[in-house]
């Protein structure tokens, strides 16, 4: 977790809820965390400020009527549902917890609108206790860094509980939320990243290596409408948005969400690049190649072609850095595979 240490030193900004937590009010931490789900930081900040001027504690939340509450928290994501949940929450806190926010994960999880992410954040920020709040940023970045290999935030939390040193539990969320919003976003801004992190980042190394391979074999990126009817080698960059089991041929395996790079070649007269790639891309198609089964669920995000007959050389080079997905070699080669994986 060297990279976390670097972020600790370099980032000088807090996520909104971390700032709100400085007021030492578990009630405000809980409510603002609920509001922050599916909501931009700026909106959470503005809405929390407006709400806490009128609603300072559980009694205020009990008294305020639903319509006014909806207006106050608009435009946070799912504001109508959140307003309803907040009213229910106030009633439960009053009746079962003496108007106080409980300080145990299991109790917090019983509250309406409170999932593991919220409960963990309340534990760490409001009660300064050990929890690991894993949201989409923590989940994505920990996978990009190869620290975990997981499909969803819950799995990531469980893995981090096993391997993350305790001294990082309370701070990882704040650091990665800020970093994930500003730099390591879903489409990462690697050129704006801290150099010390970039040079330690496996994701960045893979992207840079892929560019080297494109240069080495003189690949050029083409659009699907502009594929030449020539012989050559191609790489398809495929994005799978959700992990799923996929049958290919007579096999079946789980494909994690992420990017897949497939290397193929079209060296026949009629089976040229245009026809071969065109067949892969057709929605309604007979499945000729194993890759066609993956293409049924994945989106092609890049087509790269080279006029060299270099399919197996490219595959061997990619295998140096990327994870091979077995079962995707070509019929007459000895390569481990021609399909390679990288997390999103
Ligand atoms: S180099 Fe890119 S992928 Fe790696 S941490 Fe920085 S922004 Fe994220």
UniProtKB/TrEMBL annotation:
One of its GO terms (biological process) is nucleotide-excision repair. Its EC number is 4.2.99.18. Binds 1 [4Fe-4S] cluster. PROSITE patterns: ENDONUCLEASE_III_2 (PS01155). CDD domains: ENDO3c, GIY-YIG_COG1833. Belongs to the Nth/MutY family. This is Endonuclease III. The gene is nth.
